[in-house]
Amino acid sequence: GHISYWNKAAEKLFDYSKDTAIGKDLHELIIPEKLRENHLNGFKAFRDTGQGPAIGKTLELTAVRKDGTEFPIELSLSAVKTKGKWSAIGIVRDITERKRTEEIIKHMAYHDALTALPTRRLFSERLILELTHARRDKNMLAVMFLDLDRFKGVNDTLGHTMGDRLLKEIAVRLKNSVRECDTVSRMGGDEFTLLLPGIDRAESAAKIADKILDMVKQPVILDGNRLNITTSIGVALYPTDSDDAETLLKNADAAMYRAKEQGRNNVQFFSPS
Question: Which of 108, 130, 190, 240 has its CA 20 to 30 A from that of 153?
Fold first, then answer.
């Protein structure tokens, strides 16, 4: 387990000189303390047999520098037997930038670029997960579908830039209207959805919907323009309205259109009729 070769790139990567590193236990030098035991256990088997879960593979691991900072690495290991003893040759690559890029791409895939709210894709995944929890715990959950009333008039009269700023403000208000465990999503355009897990009765969902109506209709001042907007809300409940994620969302959407038909700026619960 002791280091016998340490090149210039390793010196730069871990900030230990060759003279410092040679002879040191590799695990104590570059493996975070909280992860060290697992690595040592794997190395014991390798030392005796030349075999191990990491040999011949490329793995993503966490390493630590001399100053204590942890960072992600890609490690490729191969085994060599010399004078009856097994040695491991490791090639290490710092993948900090790659991981950062992956996180950015993942965030872009799951979050709306304008409002930073979850997208339809992330909302659907969370809904499926929460339905699983609701079935297990025998809880209710609510799905809400919101559409801003006469939003097109804002874009037509003040421009899309002003419309986008209004959407961002509405997104903030929606987030402030719900609990930490709830999900607010932008489906596209001026449509939003909300996922409310663990509610105890329909009245609880109605209370939150009424709060959202009040929050949304408060005037928004943008560049001296006083904007008054309202929203129509449709609500579908599990398990009464459906136990299927796609159907719940469809039913909430249908209830929202009924709210539009009832004069806008109101809440309607799904009804099969």
Answer: 108
Q: Tell me, yes or no, if 190 is annotated catalytic.
A: yes
Sign of CA dihedral 153, 187, 170, 196: positive
pLDDT at 87: 85
pLDDT band at 205 (very low <50, low <70, confident <90, very high): very high
Mapped onto helix, strand or coil, the DSSP state of residue 230 is coil
Q: Would you tell me the crossing angle of helices 160-177 and 151-158 to the nearest 10 degrees?
A: 140
- pLDDT of res. 221: 94
pTM of the complete model beyond 0.90 = no
Contact 230, 262 (CB under 8 A): no
Amino acid (one-letter) located at 63: A
Residues 6+ apart with CB under 8 A from 238: 131, 134, 140, 141, 142, 143, 248
